Amino acid sequence: MLDLVTGFVLFSAAVATVTVVLLYVWLRNRRHYGSLFWTAAFASIAAGSLLIGARGQIADLLSIHLGNALMLLGFALLLAGIASVNREPLRLVFLLPLGIWLVGMAAPQFAGSVAFRMVLYHEAALVAYALMAWSLWRSRRRSPARLMLFHLSAASTVTSAVIITAVVLWPPEDFLTYGLGPYVLIAGTMALMGTVLVGGRLLNEDADVTLTVLAETDDLTGVLNRRGVARRFAALRNKAGQPLVGALMFDLDHFKRINDAHGHAVGDQALVHFAAVARAHLRDGDIFGRLGGEEFCAILAVSSAGEAVAVAERIQAALKAVPLVTAAGHVGVTVSTGVCVEPAEGATLEALLTAADAAMYRAKSRGRDCIVADVARATHDLCRAAG
Fold first, then answer.
1. Across residues 342-351, what is the average pLDDT?
2. pLDDT digits (tens, 9 = 90+) for 172-195
3. ∠ at Cα 386 (364, 263), nearest 5°?
4. Cβ within 8 Å of residue 262, ≥6 positions away
Protein backbone atom coordinates (compact mmCIF):
# COMPACT_ATOMS: atom_id res chain seq x y z
CA MET A 1 0.00 0.00 0.00
CA LEU A 2 1.31 3.46 -0.95
CA ASP A 3 2.31 5.46 2.12
CA LEU A 4 0.73 8.88 2.62
CA VAL A 5 3.95 10.89 2.28
CA THR A 6 4.73 9.37 -1.13
CA GLY A 7 1.09 9.77 -2.14
CA PHE A 8 1.02 13.46 -1.32
CA VAL A 9 4.31 14.07 -3.15
CA LEU A 10 3.09 12.28 -6.27
CA PHE A 11 -0.23 14.09 -6.10
CA SER A 12 1.59 17.41 -5.77
CA ALA A 13 3.76 16.61 -8.80
CA ALA A 14 0.71 15.69 -10.90
CA VAL A 15 -1.15 18.87 -9.96
CA ALA A 16 1.98 20.97 -10.59
CA THR A 17 2.14 19.51 -14.10
CA VAL A 18 -1.46 20.52 -14.71
CA THR A 19 -0.60 23.99 -13.38
CA VAL A 20 2.07 24.42 -16.04
CA VAL A 21 -0.35 23.32 -18.78
CA LEU A 22 -3.03 25.74 -17.57
CA LEU A 23 -0.49 28.56 -17.40
CA TYR A 24 0.45 27.85 -21.02
CA VAL A 25 -3.25 27.93 -21.99
CA TRP A 26 -3.68 31.29 -20.29
CA LEU A 27 -0.53 32.78 -21.85
CA ARG A 28 -1.97 31.94 -25.27
CA ASN A 29 -5.20 33.79 -24.48
CA ARG A 30 -4.77 36.27 -21.64
CA ARG A 31 -8.35 37.44 -21.87
CA HIS A 32 -9.48 34.02 -20.68
CA TYR A 33 -9.40 34.62 -16.93
CA GLY A 34 -10.90 31.22 -16.14
CA SER A 35 -7.57 29.64 -17.10
CA LEU A 36 -5.70 32.15 -14.93
CA PHE A 37 -7.85 31.41 -11.87
CA TRP A 38 -7.45 27.67 -12.34
CA THR A 39 -3.69 28.04 -12.85
CA ALA A 40 -3.49 29.81 -9.48
CA ALA A 41 -5.85 27.21 -7.96
CA PHE A 42 -3.74 24.23 -8.88
CA ALA A 43 -0.51 25.99 -7.98
CA SER A 44 -2.00 26.57 -4.51
CA ILE A 45 -3.23 22.96 -4.25
CA ALA A 46 0.15 21.58 -5.38
CA ALA A 47 2.01 23.69 -2.81
CA GLY A 48 -0.44 22.74 -0.05
CA SER A 49 -0.22 19.04 -0.87
CA LEU A 50 3.57 19.16 -0.80
CA LEU A 51 3.55 20.83 2.62
CA ILE A 52 1.12 18.23 3.99
CA GLY A 53 3.32 15.45 2.62
CA ALA A 54 6.30 16.95 4.46
CA ARG A 55 4.56 16.33 7.81
CA GLY A 56 7.15 15.55 10.46
CA GLN A 57 9.95 17.07 8.36
CA ILE A 58 8.83 20.68 8.77
CA ALA A 59 7.02 22.64 11.47
CA ASP A 60 3.36 21.71 12.05
CA LEU A 61 2.43 25.34 11.45
CA LEU A 62 3.61 24.96 7.86
CA SER A 63 2.54 21.37 7.25
CA ILE A 64 -0.86 21.39 8.95
CA HIS A 65 -2.05 24.98 9.16
CA LEU A 66 -0.57 26.45 5.97
CA GLY A 67 -0.71 23.26 3.89
CA ASN A 68 -4.44 22.73 4.36
CA ALA A 69 -5.12 26.46 4.06
CA LEU A 70 -3.41 26.48 0.65
CA MET A 71 -5.45 23.47 -0.43
CA LEU A 72 -8.68 25.25 0.49
CA LEU A 73 -7.51 28.51 -1.08
CA GLY A 74 -7.17 26.43 -4.23
CA PHE A 75 -10.86 25.50 -3.95
CA ALA A 76 -11.77 29.20 -3.69
CA LEU A 77 -9.79 29.89 -6.86
CA LEU A 78 -11.50 26.96 -8.61
CA LEU A 79 -14.83 28.55 -7.75
CA ALA A 80 -13.59 31.88 -9.09
CA GLY A 81 -12.59 30.14 -12.32
CA ILE A 82 -16.05 28.61 -12.72
CA ALA A 83 -17.63 32.02 -12.08
CA SER A 84 -15.38 33.53 -14.75
CA VAL A 85 -16.36 30.85 -17.26
CA ASN A 86 -20.03 31.41 -16.40
CA ARG A 87 -19.58 35.19 -16.88
CA GLU A 88 -20.67 35.77 -13.29
CA PRO A 89 -19.21 38.09 -10.62
CA LEU A 90 -16.85 36.78 -7.96
CA ARG A 91 -18.58 36.16 -4.63
CA LEU A 92 -17.31 36.38 -1.08
CA VAL A 93 -18.92 32.99 -0.36
CA PHE A 94 -16.13 31.38 -2.42
CA LEU A 95 -13.85 31.96 0.59
CA LEU A 96 -16.20 30.08 2.93
CA PRO A 97 -14.27 26.75 2.80
CA LEU A 98 -11.02 28.53 3.70
CA GLY A 99 -12.85 30.47 6.41
CA ILE A 100 -14.18 27.23 7.93
CA TRP A 101 -10.63 25.93 8.26
CA LEU A 102 -9.17 29.14 9.68
CA VAL A 103 -11.95 29.59 12.23
CA GLY A 104 -11.85 25.94 13.30
CA MET A 105 -8.08 25.93 13.72
CA ALA A 106 -8.30 29.06 15.88
CA ALA A 107 -9.73 26.86 18.69
CA PRO A 108 -6.61 25.33 20.34
CA GLN A 109 -8.63 22.86 22.43
CA PHE A 110 -9.75 21.18 19.19
CA ALA A 111 -6.93 21.93 16.75
CA GLY A 112 -4.64 19.42 18.47
CA SER A 113 -6.94 16.53 17.52
CA VAL A 114 -6.09 14.67 14.29
CA ALA A 115 -9.71 13.55 13.92
CA PHE A 116 -10.97 17.10 14.39
CA ARG A 117 -8.59 18.47 11.74
CA MET A 118 -9.56 15.78 9.24
CA VAL A 119 -13.26 16.34 9.81
CA LEU A 120 -12.77 20.11 9.62
CA TYR A 121 -10.85 19.92 6.34
CA HIS A 122 -13.33 17.59 4.67
CA GLU A 123 -16.26 19.69 5.90
CA ALA A 124 -14.62 22.64 4.16
CA ALA A 125 -14.03 20.53 1.03
CA LEU A 126 -17.67 19.38 1.13
CA VAL A 127 -18.80 23.00 1.18
CA ALA A 128 -16.44 23.81 -1.73
CA TYR A 129 -17.74 20.97 -3.89
CA ALA A 130 -21.33 21.85 -3.02
CA LEU A 131 -20.68 25.47 -4.07
CA MET A 132 -19.20 24.22 -7.35
CA ALA A 133 -22.25 22.07 -8.03
CA TRP A 134 -24.57 24.96 -7.13
CA SER A 135 -22.67 27.41 -9.35
CA LEU A 136 -22.76 25.02 -12.32
CA TRP A 137 -26.42 24.12 -11.79
CA ARG A 138 -27.65 27.71 -11.61
CA SER A 139 -25.70 28.82 -14.68
CA ARG A 140 -27.85 29.56 -17.69
CA ARG A 141 -25.07 28.31 -19.94
CA ARG A 142 -25.39 24.61 -20.68
CA SER A 143 -22.79 22.31 -22.22
CA PRO A 144 -21.62 18.69 -21.88
CA ALA A 145 -18.52 19.75 -19.91
CA ARG A 146 -20.60 21.77 -17.46
CA LEU A 147 -22.96 18.85 -16.93
CA MET A 148 -20.07 16.45 -16.33
CA LEU A 149 -18.41 18.82 -13.87
CA PHE A 150 -21.72 19.29 -12.05
CA HIS A 151 -22.14 15.52 -11.58
CA LEU A 152 -18.51 15.19 -10.51
CA SER A 153 -18.87 18.03 -7.98
CA ALA A 154 -22.04 16.45 -6.59
CA ALA A 155 -20.29 13.05 -6.33
CA SER A 156 -17.29 14.69 -4.62
CA THR A 157 -19.66 16.31 -2.12
CA VAL A 158 -21.00 12.86 -1.24
CA THR A 159 -17.45 11.46 -1.06
CA SER A 160 -16.47 14.16 1.43
CA ALA A 161 -19.49 13.29 3.55
CA VAL A 162 -18.48 9.60 3.52
CA ILE A 163 -14.93 10.49 4.59
CA ILE A 164 -16.24 12.64 7.44
CA THR A 165 -18.45 9.75 8.61
CA ALA A 166 -15.53 7.30 8.45
CA VAL A 167 -13.26 9.59 10.48
CA VAL A 168 -15.95 10.10 13.10
CA LEU A 169 -16.61 6.34 13.39
CA TRP A 170 -12.93 5.32 13.27
CA PRO A 171 -10.99 8.30 14.56
CA PRO A 172 -7.24 8.25 13.85
CA GLU A 173 -4.55 8.55 16.49
CA ASP A 174 -1.91 9.69 14.00
CA PHE A 175 -2.41 11.11 10.54
CA LEU A 176 0.49 9.42 8.73
CA THR A 177 -0.23 5.96 10.17
CA TYR A 178 -4.01 6.15 9.91
CA GLY A 179 -5.29 2.89 8.39
CA LEU A 180 -7.93 4.63 6.29
CA GLY A 181 -5.49 7.37 5.30
CA PRO A 182 -4.53 5.91 1.89
CA TYR A 183 -8.20 5.45 1.00
CA VAL A 184 -8.95 9.03 2.02
CA LEU A 185 -6.02 10.22 -0.11
CA ILE A 186 -7.12 8.12 -3.09
CA ALA A 187 -10.73 9.36 -2.83
CA GLY A 188 -9.61 12.98 -2.52
CA THR A 189 -7.12 12.57 -5.38
CA MET A 190 -9.71 11.04 -7.69
CA ALA A 191 -12.14 13.86 -6.92
CA LEU A 192 -9.56 16.57 -7.56
CA MET A 193 -8.04 14.97 -10.64
CA GLY A 194 -11.50 14.38 -12.06
CA THR A 195 -12.16 18.07 -11.50
CA VAL A 196 -8.91 18.84 -13.33
CA LEU A 197 -9.74 16.70 -16.36
CA VAL A 198 -13.36 17.79 -16.74
CA GLY A 199 -12.50 21.37 -15.77
CA GLY A 200 -9.81 21.40 -18.44
CA ARG A 201 -12.41 20.39 -20.98
CA LEU A 202 -14.70 23.15 -19.72
CA LEU A 203 -11.90 25.73 -19.96
CA ASN A 204 -11.03 24.59 -23.47
CA GLU A 205 -14.68 24.73 -24.45
CA ASP A 206 -15.03 28.21 -23.00
CA ALA A 207 -11.76 29.38 -24.56
CA ASP A 208 -13.02 28.28 -27.98
CA VAL A 209 -16.27 30.16 -27.41
CA THR A 210 -14.33 33.22 -26.23
CA LEU A 211 -12.09 33.19 -29.31
CA THR A 212 -15.12 32.76 -31.57
CA VAL A 213 -16.89 35.68 -29.90
CA LEU A 214 -13.79 37.87 -30.23
CA ALA A 215 -13.43 36.95 -33.90
CA GLU A 216 -17.08 37.74 -34.61
CA THR A 217 -17.51 40.89 -32.54
CA ASP A 218 -16.96 44.52 -33.46
CA ASP A 219 -14.45 45.97 -31.00
CA LEU A 220 -16.06 49.42 -30.73
CA THR A 221 -19.76 48.68 -30.42
CA GLY A 222 -19.72 45.11 -29.11
CA VAL A 223 -22.19 43.94 -31.77
CA LEU A 224 -21.51 41.29 -34.41
CA ASN A 225 -19.15 42.02 -37.27
CA ARG A 226 -19.74 40.84 -40.85
CA ARG A 227 -18.32 37.38 -40.08
CA GLY A 228 -20.60 37.00 -37.07
CA VAL A 229 -23.66 38.05 -39.07
CA ALA A 230 -22.82 35.54 -41.80
CA ARG A 231 -22.33 32.65 -39.38
CA ARG A 232 -25.71 33.17 -37.74
CA PHE A 233 -27.64 33.76 -40.95
CA ALA A 234 -28.21 30.11 -41.92
CA ALA A 235 -29.72 29.20 -38.56
CA LEU A 236 -32.07 32.19 -38.65
CA ARG A 237 -33.14 31.53 -42.24
CA ASN A 238 -34.16 28.00 -41.31
CA LYS A 239 -36.11 29.13 -38.27
CA ALA A 240 -39.37 27.21 -38.19
CA GLY A 241 -42.66 29.04 -38.61
CA GLN A 242 -41.33 32.14 -40.36
CA PRO A 243 -41.75 32.09 -44.15
CA LEU A 244 -39.81 35.30 -44.81
CA VAL A 245 -36.44 36.74 -43.95
CA GLY A 246 -35.79 40.46 -43.94
CA ALA A 247 -32.66 42.59 -44.04
CA LEU A 248 -32.49 46.10 -42.61
CA MET A 249 -29.52 48.21 -43.69
CA PHE A 250 -28.75 51.28 -41.58
CA ASP A 251 -26.41 54.15 -42.38
CA LEU A 252 -25.88 57.04 -39.95
CA ASP A 253 -26.70 60.33 -41.66
CA HIS A 254 -23.98 62.97 -42.10
CA PHE A 255 -21.52 60.90 -40.09
CA LYS A 256 -18.50 62.67 -41.58
CA ARG A 257 -20.03 65.98 -40.50
CA ILE A 258 -20.28 64.68 -36.91
CA ASN A 259 -16.60 63.68 -36.98
CA ASP A 260 -15.52 67.00 -38.50
CA ALA A 261 -17.58 69.14 -36.13
CA HIS A 262 -17.06 67.26 -32.87
CA GLY A 263 -14.09 64.97 -33.37
CA HIS A 264 -13.71 61.24 -33.92
CA ALA A 265 -14.29 60.45 -30.24
CA VAL A 266 -17.82 61.84 -30.50
CA GLY A 267 -18.22 59.99 -33.80
CA ASP A 268 -17.38 56.76 -32.00
CA GLN A 269 -19.93 57.65 -29.31
CA ALA A 270 -22.54 58.12 -32.04
CA LEU A 271 -21.82 54.62 -33.39
CA VAL A 272 -22.02 53.08 -29.92
CA HIS A 273 -25.21 55.06 -29.19
CA PHE A 274 -26.97 53.85 -32.32
CA ALA A 275 -25.88 50.25 -31.73
CA ALA A 276 -27.28 50.34 -28.19
CA VAL A 277 -30.60 51.86 -29.28
CA ALA A 278 -31.03 49.41 -32.16
CA ARG A 279 -30.21 46.35 -30.04
CA ALA A 280 -32.69 47.46 -27.40
CA HIS A 281 -35.50 47.54 -29.95
CA LEU A 282 -34.74 44.32 -31.77
CA ARG A 283 -36.30 41.03 -30.76
CA ASP A 284 -34.75 37.91 -29.31
CA GLY A 285 -33.29 35.90 -32.14
CA ASP A 286 -32.75 38.87 -34.49
CA ILE A 287 -29.24 39.30 -35.88
CA PHE A 288 -27.60 42.71 -35.59
CA GLY A 289 -24.13 43.73 -36.65
CA ARG A 290 -21.82 46.46 -37.86
CA LEU A 291 -20.63 45.92 -41.42
CA GLY A 292 -18.03 48.67 -41.35
CA GLY A 293 -17.78 52.43 -40.92
CA GLU A 294 -21.22 53.81 -40.08
CA GLU A 295 -23.13 50.93 -41.72
CA PHE A 296 -25.11 48.43 -39.65
CA CYS A 297 -27.54 45.67 -40.56
CA ALA A 298 -30.25 43.61 -38.91
CA ILE A 299 -31.48 40.26 -40.21
CA LEU A 300 -34.94 39.17 -39.11
CA ALA A 301 -37.15 36.12 -39.50
CA VAL A 302 -40.59 37.62 -40.17
CA SER A 303 -44.07 36.59 -41.17
CA SER A 304 -44.72 39.64 -43.35
CA ALA A 305 -42.95 42.58 -44.97
CA GLY A 306 -44.87 44.92 -42.70
CA GLU A 307 -43.31 43.26 -39.67
CA ALA A 308 -39.81 44.08 -40.92
CA VAL A 309 -40.76 47.66 -41.72
CA ALA A 310 -42.32 48.06 -38.27
CA VAL A 311 -39.01 47.06 -36.66
CA ALA A 312 -37.18 49.66 -38.76
CA GLU A 313 -39.70 52.35 -37.78
CA ARG A 314 -39.39 51.42 -34.11
CA ILE A 315 -35.61 51.82 -34.19
CA GLN A 316 -35.83 55.11 -36.07
CA ALA A 317 -38.38 56.50 -33.61
CA ALA A 318 -36.32 55.38 -30.61
CA LEU A 319 -33.20 57.04 -32.02
CA LYS A 320 -35.05 60.36 -32.22
CA ALA A 321 -36.48 59.93 -28.72
CA VAL A 322 -33.11 59.17 -27.10
CA PRO A 323 -30.62 61.90 -28.07
CA LEU A 324 -26.88 61.43 -27.80
CA VAL A 325 -25.48 63.49 -24.92
CA THR A 326 -21.73 64.19 -25.05
CA ALA A 327 -19.29 66.57 -23.40
CA ALA A 328 -19.85 68.79 -26.43
CA GLY A 329 -23.60 68.82 -25.75
CA HIS A 330 -26.48 67.12 -27.54
CA VAL A 331 -25.59 65.63 -30.92
CA GLY A 332 -28.36 64.81 -33.34
CA VAL A 333 -28.09 61.29 -34.73
CA THR A 334 -30.41 60.08 -37.48
CA VAL A 335 -30.29 57.06 -39.73
CA SER A 336 -31.33 56.16 -43.25
CA THR A 337 -32.73 52.64 -43.54
CA GLY A 338 -33.21 50.24 -46.41
CA VAL A 339 -35.43 47.19 -46.01
CA CYS A 340 -35.56 44.05 -48.15
CA VAL A 341 -37.80 41.03 -47.53
CA GLU A 342 -37.61 37.73 -49.41
CA PRO A 343 -38.89 34.16 -48.94
CA ALA A 344 -36.70 32.38 -46.45
CA GLU A 345 -36.29 29.35 -48.71
CA GLY A 346 -33.43 30.06 -51.07
CA ALA A 347 -32.59 33.47 -49.61
CA THR A 348 -28.91 34.37 -49.47
CA LEU A 349 -27.29 36.88 -47.18
CA GLU A 350 -25.41 38.55 -50.03
CA ALA A 351 -28.55 39.10 -52.09
CA LEU A 352 -30.50 40.41 -49.10
CA LEU A 353 -27.80 42.86 -48.06
CA THR A 354 -27.28 44.06 -51.62
CA ALA A 355 -31.00 44.79 -52.07
CA ALA A 356 -31.30 46.42 -48.62
CA ASP A 357 -28.18 48.49 -49.34
CA ALA A 358 -29.67 49.74 -52.59
CA ALA A 359 -32.91 50.66 -50.79
CA MET A 360 -30.89 52.44 -48.09
CA TYR A 361 -29.12 54.60 -50.71
CA ARG A 362 -32.50 55.52 -52.17
CA ALA A 363 -33.51 56.64 -48.67
CA LYS A 364 -30.43 58.86 -48.53
CA SER A 365 -31.17 60.34 -51.92
CA ARG A 366 -34.69 61.22 -50.78
CA GLY A 367 -33.69 63.36 -47.84
CA ARG A 368 -32.21 60.92 -45.29
CA ASP A 369 -33.72 60.07 -41.87
CA CYS A 370 -36.25 57.79 -43.53
CA ILE A 371 -36.99 54.25 -44.63
CA VAL A 372 -37.26 52.73 -48.10
CA ALA A 373 -38.55 49.16 -48.31
CA ASP A 374 -37.88 46.96 -51.32
CA VAL A 375 -40.36 44.10 -51.03
CA ALA A 376 -40.76 41.55 -53.83
CA ARG A 377 -39.34 44.01 -56.39
CA ALA A 378 -41.87 46.72 -55.42
CA THR A 379 -40.39 49.74 -53.70
CA HIS A 380 -42.34 51.29 -50.83
CA ASP A 381 -41.17 54.79 -50.00
CA LEU A 382 -41.67 55.64 -46.31
CA CYS A 383 -39.52 58.77 -46.41
CA ARG A 384 -40.77 61.79 -44.63
CA ALA A 385 -39.29 65.22 -44.34
CA ALA A 386 -36.14 65.06 -42.27
CA GLY A 387 -36.41 66.46 -38.76
1. 87
2. 877 666 677 666 667 766 776 677
3. 75
4. 326, 328, 331
